[in-house]
Design goal:
By secondary structure, the protein is mainly α. The chain has 20 helices and no strands.
């Protein structure tokens, strides 16, 4: 059996060269997704803490935070477009080049946000430029996750795809941790000036490192094997998906619903809600997010490895049901304004309930598509669900305002999303160990 087949089809004893290639792919995917999600999450933090004042100073506090959350949601509209464009080229010509390109667009857009003058300096041009750069960010990240997940799963042994796939998700978790850490370390009084620009500007250094690492990665063996086979003229991957692959895309989108709502409640909404409505400080929230993402670095690989042993469906269903049951206690604990209870709620919700769903996605989704449309298929399912995620902070803010400050509508919103997720998981078949080729 060839080295490529040993890596792709799951032999337990991988040759040294195969192990080296797998380690390189794992490292490049982890570094690349960490950088891209760092770039994305620093915007979410800044939107909650700073941007209403910097870019929307003429609006009321409620209108200002809604406007800031609108710019947070805008890139989720271009993420599906990025999924289609990068997926097309990744499925037809290879995964590597698209990953290098998406990283470059994301890094340069983030750096540019740090240079945008405030509303006081250039008026309406400031939020207009922010919106343009956010659209570019969304387009870039639309191609990032699917490419990184496809590459890593196609390289991994079949009996450990769940575990190795989590290194793509760890990029998200570590990106949250590092972005939160940067804001937590910044002096709070610096945020009233130009201190908020620092996390955006230093991303250019991360871009240089990530681009270098990605340039060293070889194309995946599964893709190379498929590309060597003589084939008749094929439809574009998106056309093939629309003709024969709509169901797995919609299932993947539905499976993400509860997870993405919970994730953006924790990451995007609670910074504003906890500080403006509950009365906690931004430091309380940032410390809780640091702890949650720090623990997630442990729990995400743990749940991925568990899915290799007992299957993808049981682990995913456990996370969806746990998040649904925790929907009301989550806000009961937050609304006490007790920092300890707030800390426990965020850590448990993110590092346990969300992590169980999030960890399984790269392997579960990748195993649901054939090689010729895998990049496009998993990117579309993942990014279409992100539209709901991007709107979650706005929806939650609106629900609280309509309920005169009560949080119960948000809990119902979260429970509904988790019910959709659980139903979609039950509608799938087990994919663990399925042959990718």
């Amino acid at each position: 059996m060839s080295e490529q087949n040993l890596v792709a089809d799951g032999a337990i004893d991988i040759p040294a060269r195969g192990r080296s290639k797998l380690a390189t792919v794992v490292g490049s995917s982890l570094v690349g997704t960490t950088i891209e999600f760092y770039d994305f999450f620093i915007y979410g933090t800044a939107a909650a803490l700073v941007f209403p004042r910097v870019f929307f100073p003429t609006l009321s506090p409620y209108a200002g935070i809604m406007a800031a959350y609108a710019t947070l949601a805008i890139p989720f509209l271009t993420r599906p477009l990025g999924a289609v464009v990068f997926g097309h080229f990744g499925d037809r010509f290879g995964r590597k080049a698209t990953l290098v390109t998406s990283l470059a667009i994301m890094g340069l857009s983030t750096f540019a946000i740090g240079l945008v003058p405030s509303y006081d300096s250039i008026g309406l041009f400031a939020p207009a430029i922010i919106i343009l750069l956010r659209l570019l960010q969304g387009f870039a990240i639309g191609g990032e996750w699917g490419g990184a997940a496809t590459m890593i799963v196609e390289y991994a042994p079949a009996n450990r795809r769940g575990f190795f796939g989590t290194f793509v998700q760890l990029g998200n978790v570590i990106g949250l941790f590092t972005s939160t850490l940067v804001f937590a370390l910044l002096p709070q009084d610096s945020l009233s000036g130009d201190g908020w620009r620092v996390p955006f500007l230093i991303s250019i250094l991360l871009l240089a490192v990530g681009s270098f690492i990605r340039s060293k990665v070889d194309e995946s063996p599964v893709f190379e094997a498929a590309a060597q086979k003589p084939q008749a003229a094929r439809r574009a991957p998106i056309m093939e998906i629309l003709r024969n692959g709509k169901k797995p895309v919609l299932i993947a989108m539905g499976m993400r619903t509860g997870e993405i709502i919970l994730g953006w409640l924790v990451i995007g909404f609670l910074l504003s809600y906890a500080t403006r409505t509950v009365g906690l400080t931004s430091q309380h929230v940032l410390i809780a997010l640091l702890a949650a993402s720090g623990l997630g670095i442990v729990t995400v690989p743990m749940f991925g490895a568990l899915s290799d042993r007992i299957g993808r469906r049981p682990v995913y269903l456990f996370g969806a049901c746990l998040a649904a049951v925790f929907a009301f206690p989550l806000f009961w604990m937050i609304n006490t304004a007790n920092p300890v209870l707030f800390f426990m709620a965020i850590v448990f919700g993110y590092a346990v309930a969300l992590a169980a769903m999030f960890a399984v996605q790269p392997a579960f989704f990748s195993e649901s598509f054939s090689t010729g449309v895998r990049y496009t298929g998993i990117s579309l399912g993942f990014q279409l669900a992100n539209i709901i995620g991007g709107l979650t902070p706005m929806i939650a803010t609106f629900l609280v305002a309509q309920a005169n400050g009560a949080s119960w509508p948000i809990s119902i919103f979260l429970m509904t999303g988790c019910a959709i997720t659980a139903g979609c998981v039950l509608a799938t078949t087990e994919t663990a160990g399925r042959r990718l080729s």
